[in-house]
Specification:
By secondary structure, this protein is mainly α. The chain has 2 domains: 102 residues, no CATH class; 32 residues, no CATH class.
Length: 135
């Protein structure tokens, strides 16, 4: 069992997840990865597999099949990992929604965009120094 791989002093009390629907596939898979990139690729591949399963499922309505990603959730242990997952989802064209609590201001592309927006509003050319990171 997966729980046996966790030291007993790091375990929390048991919690039960109760599904709304009785799905045929109820397994929990435990995977170990050698790199973070390998794990992200696995997550995206698994999401695409689930999307395909949803498309042919006889248990779901036509509306649920038309929006397969709403039936998929990725849970993270550490919030700091969310930006890596979002970036990977964007590269793979996987739509996502979050609770909106992630801070993306430290991301390179976001900083560059903020520099461009600030640069557009600078009236004195002496204020241009330090803004070349956007270019």
């Amino acid at each position: 069992k997966i729980i046996s791989q966790l030291p007993s002093d790091e375990r929390t009390e048991a919690k039960e997840l109760i599904p709304r629907r009785d799905f045929k596939r109820k397994e929990i898979n435990f995977k170990q990865f050698t790199t973070e990139e390998e794990e992200l690729i696995f997550i995206c591949d698994r999401i695409e597999d689930i999307k395909k399963d949803i498309a042919v499922s006889g248990e779901l309505s036509a509306e649920e099949k038309s929006r397969p990603y709403t039936n998929i959730a990725v849970l993270l242990r550490k919030r700091e990992d969310i930006l890596k997952i979002i970036d990977t989802f964007q590269k793979r064209g996987i739509p996502y929604a979050t609770d909106g609590k992630e801070d993306i201001s430290s991301e390179k592309r976001v900083r560059q965009m903020l520099d461009v927006l600030q640069l557009a509003h600078i009236k004195d050319t002496a204020d241009y120094s330090g803004k070349d990171a956007a270019f």
